[in-house]
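We store chain and fold; thus.
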Amino acid sequence: MKILSCEPHGVQERILQKRDDKALYKRLHKAKAYGLEAWILDGEKIKGSTPTAGNQSH
């Protein structure tokens, strides 16, 4: 799944694969994610996320 990510140097296109974080993929695919996500990255790939202040989606 391709995700547009707002970052300090502008908007970047990131990739999240189901095999990298099945729960996150499912949550985003079903549009059950709200608030900010802090990505755990490996190059351009999203490998997971960590909770951010005020985010109740985890």
Q: What stands out?
A: The chain has one helix and four strands. The two ends are 19 Å apart (CA to CA).
